[in-house]
Design a protein that fits this description.
alpha/beta; Rossmann fold; 10 strands; 38% helix; elongated
């Protein structure tokens, strides 16, 4: 005979309140909006919620409010990894007590727009977040149904636009490298179909001119490591840069490989910077100086716009810098090459 254990009982608001040392009305208020509560109170309730594993009863809430407690995030099928963006979005939704379904749709803008409208009118979700633009024909005249919010951060192919294309860290990188003594630079650019790649290229050229630096050129890359290797292989041995600004970390890793093939030490002969703060780059020898873009914050703010549209609780938005330079071992003052030795030889 098989014995079946009874399902674990869900903790209640009153149990959360008792553990946190507050009233159950305060916990109810906390679940609707964190604003207006003292930091110490928030900390105690947060701890109680985590310790008890409390989650709002979505079914009961649905019966009271006639809402499902469910949200949908719609995005195109893409080869790019948007795990960090979705991580921030899902965390914010769960914090507000919502369940989220991520829907990846293959096809055109019109196809994705149709899917968004189907979800909005299905009665199965309270709101839909579209990470890419919707068809212009309905942007200003959405039919009734669930709330629909369109993210301003990506174009139709999930390429960064707007605030996420901020290239000011390129300027910071070059100013710091110039202060270390670097005068000759190379930029290995990203795919120029991307607004972010165009912005980084423009920032590089502006910094070269403003700081009175020498540029050995802009190598047109495609975000691949091979484009970084190729750019270094094609450099003139008599006019090597001492610093390379790579479009992303993958390109930068190719630059490091190309430098190794040519017998150049990184960072002694060639300082290298990337972009994205790929976790693997912390473990390279040398670890890579790079730029971290707060995609988690962008994802959080996108979902908070949707939560506000569906009348959900007011949560604290992310408000930090979009991008931050992370200085590591791949950048250093340039090493003086012996005058008798041709540049690029050991």
């Amino acid at each position: 005979m098989t014995e079946h254990s009874a399902p674990a009982r869900r903790p209640t608001i009153k149990e959360v309140a008792r553990l946190a040392g507050v009233s159950h009305q305060t916990v109810s208020r906390y679940l609707k909006s964190r604003q207006g509560l003292l930091p110490a109170t928030l900390e105690r309730i947060d701890g109680a919620v985590e310790e008890l594993g409390y989650r709002p009863n979505l079914m009961a809430r649905s019966m009271r409010t006639r809402r499902t407690g469910r949200l949908a995030v719609v995005m195109p099928v893409t080869t790019f990894n948007h795990a960090r963006l979705l991580s921030g979005a899902l965390a914010a939704a769960h914090e507000a007590g919502h369940v989220v379904e991520v829907v990846s749709v293959e096809g055109s803008t019109a196809t994705r727009t149709e899917r968004v409208l189907e979800l909005a009118q299905s009665g199965q979700v309270d709101g839909v977040l579209s990470l890419t633009p919707m068809a212009a024909s309905i942007e200003h005249g959405l039919p009734g149904g669930a709330a629909v919010v369109v993210s301003p951060d990506f174009d139709d192919a999930m390429r960064s636009i707007g605030e996420l294309t901020d290239a000011s860290p390129v300027t910071e990188l070059m100013e710091r490298l110039a202060a270390l003594g670097h005068r000759r630079f190379l930029h290995v650019a990203g795919d120029q179909d991307w607004a972010s790649a165009r912005a980084r290229k423009a920032a590089y050229l502006e910094a070269v001119e403003r700081l009175g630096l020498e540029s050995v050129g802009v190598a047109e890359g495609d975000w691949s490591g091979e484009s970084g290797v190729k750019a270094v292989r094609q450099l003139d041995s008599d006019r090597l840069p001492t610093a390379v600004i790579a479009a992303n970390d993958v390109v930068a890793s190719g630059v490091v490989r190309g430098a190794h093939e040519r017998g150049l030490d990184v960072p002694g002969d060639l300082s290298v910077t990337g972009w994205d703060d790929n976790e693997l780059c912390r473990f390279l020898p040398p670890s890579l100086t790079t730029v971290r873009v707060n995609l988690e914050g962008a994802g959080r703010n996108a979902v908070l716009r949707l939560i506000k549209a569906v009348g959900g609780p007011e949560l604290e938005p992310w408000s930090g810098p979009v991008a931050q330079v992370i200085w590591r071992e791949s950048t250093a003052p340039p090493r003086r090459r012996p005058a008798s030795a041709p540049a690029g030889t050991r």
